[in-house]
Each structure stands twice: as structure tokens, then as C-alpha cells.
Amino acid sequence: MGDEQRGPTGKKVGELLVDAGLIDEKQLAVALAEQKKSGARLGSVLTELGFTSDSEVSRALAKQSGLDHVDLDVSEIHADALALIPAQIARRYNVLPLRITSGALVVAMSNPTDIVAIDELQRHTDHFVQAVCAGHRELQRAIERSYHAKGATGSVVEVAAARALTEVQDEGDQEARGALIALVRELIGLALRRDATDLHLQPEAKGTRVRLRVDGDLEQDVRLDPRLHPPVVARIKVMASLDISETRVPQDGKIRFPYEGGIVDLRVSTFPSVTGESVVVRILDLDDGVLRLSSLGLDERGETILAKAAQRPNGLILAVGPTGSGKTTSLHALLRTVDGEHRKILTVEDPVEYEVPMVTQCQVNEKAGLTFAASMRAILRHDPDVILVGEMRDRETASLALRAALTGHLVLSTLHTNDAVRTISRLRDMELDSYLISSCLVAVAAQRLVRCICSHCRESYAPRPDELAAVGLPEDATGSFARGRGCDRCNHSGSKGREALFEVLEVTPRIAQLISRNAELDVIEAAAREDGLLTFRERALQRAIAGRMSLEEVARITTEY
Question: Which pTM value belongs to this model?
């Protein structure tokens, strides 16, 4: 389907996206100019520029064509429909059978006007095909997930491992050989299909333990023969442009991995151990959705505070929380609300995880002396309006960030603290003057990731008194409590996916005055709560009562924090 066609709505895709508020007129103009140069479809150009996402373009195409759009992450896929179309045909035409309704086979397609594909499906299944729209990459993930159900994924890796083991026992340049390359590709593909955030290759005397971090928890999948570990690590290091001859020191690198018609960014870290090099591959852009403030999971108050703060000409905005809580994601979503056409934006990051249009980005290189502090000093000579500092790791970097905020720059950065109010204590511990903190700090978004109830096995229930007491609720508490029973989709855990939980502290004049007077944290917190601040525990309980979070997850948050 050409993006310039008009459908039943009489509007083009670009116009539909503008009408929906997903892009603005300036972004559409930039994309149309780029389309003339590249000849690509407008939807692809908009996605490549980061102005919108594959899913949003798909919804616009569905509206243009007068077809339904489906969310494959929550849609039920019927086994009788899946059995009608073999995996190879589904992958060839990028289609997924969903269900059989009144003699018609409902099929999700990224291009529902592909007559050749529809004819082939009707011929093969002997059913009339009713097409519905789905995003291209979302559809490919769903195809892999559906056809690899019930343990089939592990067998694919095991077959690839057996072939690679036969191959590596021969002499030669092992890391460049075909079966080994296929094995590494399958290992990374396994992590992507399982929606993992990290792939761990952990060497042990009896073999390599392959583990995936899914929804924050580590799960073991397969074990590789110990003879495969050195060549597999060597292959990954080649892909990440690391030194394969150096095995005694840690190394870090990055891979741009082609997958399902797109590119996935991977961060590779190696670490020497007594049994060999341990490797962790972090998946940086598993989700191809565009980062937006409205998609982070903030409530109306928090989103308003941060959006208003991002429009300020100067000040310091902090995202805080433990490692892996999504701080960088939130900062980049906030950065996208800044007018990049009229304000110069510079970043210094370690590493650069998201590439943002119209933003100059720099990666820290400590071996070359390019630290956060050194980069900050250099950045200030390049006339920036907005500066993103990946992390305020030390007093020098924090001091430079605060002074930049004080001298007319908007500064965004991160810190490792447990909640919003304790950010003030962390800044004080870095020996920063309270008057400087109160003058510069505008807002703090504290966050952590919590597990969601699996939408496929979610059930309502009445909690036992001990479950309510464990999270501080009375025995007679009422609400729409829910939990997950456990199913194949969630690996029988009852939870699938994670979402962010936020505390947003607005530094009002009263809060700033308390900070400058070195007031105790409990005094500052009391004032902030009078202004509307809700703690993590309070927000978690709200979600549990509304049936959006399990009481088990609330208990975990309460215990940890």
C-alpha cells in the first residue's frame, strides 16, 4: 500500500497522524522532504526519523483502509486458526492467523492490500480471508512467539548448538564459521522472542548457562557444551568490535543487530571469571515505540509537572531510581518535548542508548579522558540551550550540572536514589551547597519498574486477610483485586511485562525554601505531600485496589523500599 493513497476517509496517512496529534506539521514537512530524497514510504520515513512508531503508522493505515486494527500483545490466537497456516508461509507474507469466524479466517497483516498474499492464503487454507491491520514489527514478534510456543524455541537453539559443536572441533578461524554464526544469531533471537531485556552467558565447569532476564527475573533456558563457550564469546566480541585476544580485563561494546526487517541495538559487556569470560548482552530497543511523556505511565499531575519543567529556559530536572528502572528512557521521553528546532540540545551519555533526531549526542570515553565532567566543560563552550547528562556520578559532574542550570541552561540528568525526597539528601552528600540545590532543582521523577498482571490469565479474586495485612490494608478492604493464574504466555508466572511506578516531586517555592534552610527530609516530605506528592507504596496500593497490580507485587515494593 502506498502511503500517498487516499482511503475511505479521504485523507493521506500523514494528515491522519497530524489530526491524531501523533506528529505535527513541521515533522510531516521534514518527513516529506526526506521521502523525496529516499523514495521510501512515508510511514517508514516517519518511523526512521523517530517522529512516530510502527504501531501508530499501522493504526493510521487501518483507518485509511477502513479496516480494523488489532493489538497482538493482548489478542487471543486460536490454535485451530494457527494450524491452517504453516510457519514458513506466515513468515513469508508476514501474516498471523487469529481465529475462524463464520467460515472466514481472520488474519493480521502489516499490508492488508497485498492481494497476492491473500490469494495464496485462501488457496492454501480453503477459507475466505478477512484481513485486519497490525504493526510490521509487532506482527513479526507475534509470529515468532506463536510458532515457537511450548518449548519449540529451546529446541531450535539446541539444534544450532549441536551443529556448531561439530564445526568448532575442526581447526580454523572458529568465530567466523557458519554454524557458530547461526548459533549466536539464535541465542540473540531467543532473547528477542522472549521479550528479554538481557541475555546472560555464564560459564561454568560443566557448560555455559544461558539465562534470560524477563520482567526483571532471571530464567534459565538452555545449557551449552563447555567447548562452545570460547568461540561463542569470540564471535560476540567480533560483532561488538571488541578485542578477541584480550580475555583478562572487562570490555564493553555495541552491536546493531538486524532483526525482523529492522535494527535492534545491543550493548555487550564481558567480564573475566575463573571459568571463562562472562557475557551479558543488553537489549536496548526491544520496543520500537516512540518515547513520549504520555506513554511512561505518569499520572496527570506528574506529567503536567514534568512537561512544564521541560519548557523552562533553565533549571535541573532529575530522574532517579535504581539501576535498570528506566531513568534514561524517561529522560529521553522528556527530551522529545523540547523544541529541538529552536533550541540547541547536547547530550553526554554512557552509552548513547537512544539516537534522537536534531540532538547532538556524545558518548563518554574514560580511556581517552572524555569523562562526564570533561564533557560538561566542553559542552558549555558550544552554546547549548539544553544539556542531558547521562549520570551525575561524582561531585565534580554534579557541581558542573548545577552551575550550568544556574547560568541559563536546562539540564536533565539521573541519580541513584530510592525515592524523590531522598534525592535532596543525595545531593547534600555530594557536598553541594543547599542554596545552590534550592536555586536550580526544578523537579525530580523517582521511578522503578513493577510487574504487570498477565492479561491472558488475569482473574478477579477476594484476597485473604493475611494478604491484605501484608501490604497494610485492613481486613475489610474492598476493591477490584486481581492476580494472574499462570499460563503459557507468562511462563506460568502470572505476570507479563513491566510498567513504571513514579513519585514526582515539584520543587515549589516552599520546598526550595526548606531545602535552602537545610530542613530535615521528613519536614520536606510532609510539605511535598501537602502539595500532592504520593509515595511509591501509596501509588502501588491504588493500582492494586483498581486491579492493575497484584498484592504480591505491592508487598515486594513495600519490602524492598
Answer: 0.70
Residue 5 included in any domain? no
Q: Are 364 and 313 within 8 A, CB to CB? A: no
In angstroms, rounded to a whole number, what is the distance separating the alpha carbons of residues 450 and 539? Answer: 11
Question: Residue 559 and residue 561: Cα distance in Å, rounded?
Answer: 6
DSSP H stretches of helix in 224-299: 229-239
Q: How confident is the model at residue 505 (pLDDT cuts 50, 70, 90)?
A: very high
pLDDT tens, position by position, 225-275: 999 999 999 999 999 999 999 999 999 888 989 876 678 889 999 999 999
Residues 6+ positions from 542 with CB-CB distance below 8 Å: 534
Pairing of strands 104-109, 128-133: parallel
Sign of the dihedral defined by the CA atoms of residues 49, 52, 53, 55, in that order: negative
Backbone angles phi, psi at 58, to 5 degrees: -60, -40
Res 498 pLDDT > 70: yes
DSSP string, 413-476: EEE--SSSTHHHHHHHHTT--HHHHHHHEEEEEEEEEEEEEPTTSEEE----HHHHHHTT--TT
Here the cell at position 195 is 521479550
**Nearest alpha-carbon partner for 450 in 352, 556, 348:** 556
Q: Which residues contact 388 (CB under 8 A, 6 or more apart)?
A: 331, 332, 335, 345, 346, 347, 348, 349, 411, 412, 413
Name residue, grid cell 567447548: 227
| Orientation angle between helical segments 152-168 and 229-239, nearest 10 degrees | 100
Burial environment of residue 269 by CB neighbours within 10 A (0 to 12, 13 to 18, 19 or more):
middle
State the Cα–Cα distance between residues 527 and 368, nearest whole angstrom. Answer: 45
The total of structural domains in the chain comes to 3
Of how many residues is the chain composed? 561
Q: pLDDT grade, residue 177 (50/70/90)?
A: low
**Same domain as 175, residue 125:** no
CA gap 44, 425 in Å, rounded: 46
Q: Which residues pair with 506 in a beta bridge?
A: 443
CATH of the domain at 365: 3.40.50.300
132 and 167 both lie in a single domain: no
- DSSP, collapsed to helix, strand or coil, labels residue 560 as helix
Do 401 and 413 contact (CB within 8 A), yes or no? yes
Say what angle helices 178-193 and 152-168 make with each other, to 10 degrees.
160
CB atoms within 10 A of CB 170: 8
**Do residues 272 and 346 share a domain?**
no
* Residue where a domain terminates, one of 139, 174, 199: 139
Quickly state the pLDDT bin for 8 (edges 50, 70, 90): very low
Boundaries of domain holding 31: 13-139
3-state helix, strand, coil in the chain (%, to 5): 40, 25, 35
State whether 180 and 202 are in the same domain. Answer: yes
- Containing 106, the helix (H) or strand (E) segment is strand 104-109
Nearest C-alpha neighbor of 192 from the set 251, 264, 143: 264
